[in-house]
């Protein structure tokens, strides 16, 4: 009789916790995060813990382990600093890359304009021409200073990638996710376009074919090219 | 087919700086009539309005790539004979083979120099 009373009290207390949780989140309109689910799982497992501890110690042990794992996962998720990544790190890296594109474009335009002015300059007066070329060369040197700044910006982007890599790697390691546990990814429209139109982008040194290789391919008879598919 | 420096040349690239570079190199080679387009769609429209003696096109552009442009040009009876050189950073063997099969006249991998461009143009017109 005492045992039933205890269970009834515990259930009431835990049911109240669940009701409180649901009350707090009733206006979420379906926007449920992983943290919410884990919090609810924590509350639910806590309620089960009280009940089952009176009837089955083995199950209690399992539930304790699950609760410990959930707590550990919450800690790992907090270590990911996902919001910091989303709101600060990744947008900052994007801004740095935009600035790099802008700086290299400006420098290229300056260099090209200067070169065009030299090419179009009047050469009939050698002294005037020499002075013009000297001045324009200084403009080209000045434009090349973009390299120092873009180098620093690229370092910041690499720092961000390293930050993300370290946290995601640590997260995967703590969750003990097997390497072969990868969900099949459905090909996006963009990926399909790249595959169908053979869009690989620039290759690194030694990865693509050289101009000499291309000349050889184009010079070969079709049968030789076909051999590449064998 | 003889190389005629008076013939109109169409340069197709979505990167304005690259158009400017190729335009300057072509001018150095003696070409005077140089037009440009920012992607395959614009190039095709221009090609239907004007007969170009040579097309120099990038591969990776949106919405229409240089590869799609090449196939469209080769399938159009009015345009199919237009000499077409691909100038691109796409340097995988499968890209070169696909371009060859689609009927490209020559293929230049970026980055390239003036000598390469000159050599390939001359090669196309000596075929």
Can you offer a commentary on this structure?
The complex is a heterodimer of chains A (230) and B (127). Chain A contains nine helices and no strands. The relative contact order of chain A is 0.06. Chain A has two domains: 2-80; 82-176. Chain A is mainly alpha-helical. Chain B has 127 residues and is of the alpha/beta class. Chain B has one domain (9-126): Rossmann fold. Chain B has five helices and five strands; from the N terminus they run βαβαβαβαβα. Chain B has helices spanning 16-29, 40-49, 66-75, 93-102, 114-126, and strands at 9-12, 34-37, 54-57, 84-88, 106-109. Chain B: It comes from Roseibium album. Chain B: This is Chemotaxis protein CheY. Chain B: Pfam families: Response_reg (PF00072). Chain B: InterPro entries: CheY-like_superfamily, Sig_transdc_resp-reg_receiver, ST_Response_Regulator. Chain B: Keywords: Phosphoprotein.
Total discrete domains of chain A: 2
N-to-C SSE string of chain A, H for helix and E for strand: HHHHHHHHH
Report helical residue fraction of chain B. 40-55%
Structural class of chain A: mainly alpha
Low-confidence stretches of chain B: none
Largest interface: A-B, 25 and 28 residues
How large a portion of the residues of chain B is in β-strands, by DSSP E?
Answer: 15-25%
Strand order of the largest sheet of chain B: 2-1-3-4-5
- Main beta sheet of chain A: none
Report on the biggest sheet of chain B. Answer: 5 strands, parallel
Task: Describe the protein's topology.
The complex is a heterodimer of chains A (230) and B (127).
Chain A: H1 2-24, H2 34-53, H3 57-80, H4 82-120, H5 126-143, H6 146-175, H7 189-196, H8 211-219, H9 222-227
Chain B: E1 9-12, H1 16-29, E2 34-37, H2 40-49, E3 54-57, H3 66-75, E4 84-88, H4 93-102, E5 106-109, H5 114-126
Helix pairs in contact in B: 2-3
